[in-house]
Specification:
This protein is of the alpha/beta class. Helix 2 packs parallel to helix 3. It contains 4 helices and 5 strands. Strands 1-3-5 form a 3-stranded parallel beta sheet. A two-stranded parallel sheet has the order 2-4. It is globular and about 30 Å long.
Amino acid sequence: MTTTVLNVGKIIDSPSALTREQGLLLQKEIISCLNNNEKVVLDCNEIESSLTPFWNVSIGKLYDLFDEDMLSSHLSII
């Protein structure tokens, strides 16, 4: 199984992860990887600040599409 590291700061083009729109950008990348049965590591090293709306869309909405076991085994954050 392939592991893909997604650099959150680069995907949203900002050190601040604040908005739902930014969350949607990350969510699309995550979904693409998970649909290809890849493990996903979210690299948040470039993120200086974040708000709940960003995480609700980027991660929270994934639970509507994938079961908890799959997300637990295929998604991590560093």
